[in-house]
Amino acid sequence: MTSKDFTIPIEELNKQKEYSSLVQTVLSSRFSDSKPKAFVHTYGCQGNVADGEKLKGMLEEMGYCFTEKVEEADLVLYNTCAIREHAQDRVYGNVGALKQIKEKNPDLIIALCGCMMQQEYVAERIKKSFRYVDLVFGTHVIYKLPEFIYKCLCTSQRVFEITDSDGNIVEGLPIHRDGKFKAWIPIMYGCNNFCSYCVVPYVRGRERSRDFNAVLNEARELIKKGYKEITLLGQNVNSYNKDLDDKYSFPALLRAINDIEGDFIIRFMTSHPRDCTFELLNAMAECKKVAKHLHLPFQSGNDRVLNEMNRHYDREKYLSLIDYAYKLMPDLSITSDVIVGFPGETYEEFCDTLSLIEKVRYTSLFTFIFSSRPGTKAASMEDKISRKEKGEWFNELIGLQEKIAGERTASMKNKIYRVLVEEEKENGVLTGRTEGNIIIEFFGDKSLIGSFCNVKVTEPKTWILKGEIVG
Predict the structure, then answer these.
(1) What is the pTM for the complete model shown?
(2) pLDDT class for 167, splitting at 50, 70, 90?
(3) How many whole angstroms from its chain centre is CA 256?
């Protein structure tokens, strides 16, 4: 199989460009004195953010400009996330708040897309309970946005497009990048792992990798334009190209991008332990431009729970990867994801998670109390532990990680780090991130934003560092 087997043909993209031109004609007649405004908000992961930049690129091509105020918008687009119940509740709340705005502006187009909308039960709820929503579409058809907008503008019908698919690849969509020196490059989409708690394979489809040269050319173009940080994205970047008849692995891709001439840093996420290899860790250690930061979700430190989660590795394998990584890169920053209170988990098993955290000594953790997702295997598992007790476990974990993080940052005092300056916080205080992805604040001129500088840590705190520019 090659990437061409699931790449949307150029004829379909040309058809969407025609719709884009038609939308532009309609909008220019309705907004003769000004451009129509779009409010676009993305929830969830970096993959969603990358999709959001493509959605904005298409809207821009259709003639829209952008506003940060929903009250000013002629089109509101929410790009949604389905990973946890809380994320979905936020969407329902924000969509509900649009009803009054729609009443004041009946011509307002309200559109919802993304992972949450790919779930049939969600789309049905929107159709029945939020009748003022004009457009709902799933993850597999975002490239058809011009066609959907044209239908909304020219008919009084609501548009619902939830295609059940294993997914596809779309190359050549316009992109409105939100950052001027940091960029996302999706290298693959979907997931084949089917972790028992995760809805991603059901809403994003099966794994499919972008063509190696397409990714490499996109990286070259970004670096040529002056981008300083490139983040490669995939639900499981370690399995890049395993779905294709292609010799280029993910470590090979890292090495190829690392060889591009220029001053920049390479990051990637997410890295699944199942497919993490010594070859990848060797590439990280040997490539000077690859950040010495590894996000490697372990989810639980107990083998029985990992098996119930369908994670395809055990504690011993995970720790062997960590040990090897630290031998190659003693200053490596490791971050991870943890689920607290998975169905059937006991406190003794949870303590295995605490002991793993103690052993690995993470820079930081993304921690979550188990959230049941309809349609997943875990949703039907018996869960006897109360939310209150899970909250107590969660607080215990947070306390442990806070202690470890404080000890790690304390060891960084008086050390010098190369930092990409990201923004001015206030009163001349700049912020950036170390190669290990730790926020550091320091005084400096805002002209430094978007460039690298050396910063000495003067005051380590638990989660951030304070420093001063040197050299």
Answers:
(1) 0.95
(2) confident
(3) 23
What is the average pLDDT across 434-441?
96
**CATH number for the domain running over 179-291:** 3.30.750.210
Give the bridge partners for 469, in sequence order. 455
In the predicted model, is pLDDT for residue 284 greater than 80? Answer: yes
Burial classification of residue 164, based on how many CB atoms lie within 10 Å of its CB (0-12 exposed, 13-18 middle, 19 or more buried) = exposed
DSSP 8-state class, residue 106: T
Query: Where would I find the beta strands (DSSP E) of 131-264?
Result: 135-137, 159-161, 182-186, 188-189, 208-209, 229-233
In the chain, what are the domain boundaries? 3-161, 179-291, 416-470
| 97 CB-near residues (< 8 Å, 6+ apart) | none
pLDDT digits (tens, 9 = 90+) for 108-149: 999 999 999 999 999 999 999 999 999 999 999 999 999 999
CA-based nearest residue to 335, from 189, 435, 227: 435
Q: Which fold has domain 3-161?
A: Rossmann fold (3.40.50)
Strand ranges in 327-438 using DSSP code E only, listed in sequence order: 333-340, 364-369, 416-426, 429-433
Distance of alpha carbon 233 from alpha carbon 236, whole angstroms: 8
Determine the Cα–Cα distance for residues 38 and 42; give it in Å rounded to an integer: 13
Other beta carbons within 10 Å of 353: 26
CATH code: domain 416-470 is 2.40.50.140
- Which amino acid makes up residue 464? I
Average of per-residue pLDDT across 399-405: 98
What would the pLDDT profile of 222-261 be if each residue is shown by its tens digit?
999 999 999 999 999 999 998 877 779 999 999 999 999 9
For residue 30, the tally of other CB atoms under 10 A from its CB is 11
Q: Are 352 and 315 in contact (CB under 8 A)?
A: yes
Rounded to an integer, what distance in angstroms lies between the CA atom of residue 353 and that of residue 371?
Answer: 18
DSSP 255-296: HHHHTSSSS-EEEEE---TTT--HHHHHHHHH-TTB-SEEE-
